[in-house]
Amino acid sequence: MLYKYTPFPLVHPPHNFISIKPLTAYKNTYIYSQMAPSFDNESSLFNFVVRDGNGVKGIVDSGISKVPQAYIQPHAEQIDKKSASKCEFPPIDLSKLDGPDHDEVVNQIVRAAETLGFFQVVNHGVPVQLLDSLKQTAHNFFSLPAERKAVYRKEVSPSPLVKYGTSFVPEKERALEWKDYISMAYTNDDEALQQWPIECRDVALQFLKTSHEMVRNLLEALLGNLGEELDDSKIDAFIGKKMVNMNFYPTCPNPELTVGVGRHSDMGTLTILLQDGIGGLYVKVPEDVDMEKKGEWVEIPPIPGALVINVGDMLQIWSNGRYKSAEHRVRTTSTKSRVSIPIFTSPLPTQKVAPLPQVVKKDGGARYREFVFSNYMNSFFGNAHDGKKSLEFAQINSN
Question: Domain limits at 92?
Answer without folding.
Answer: 42-393
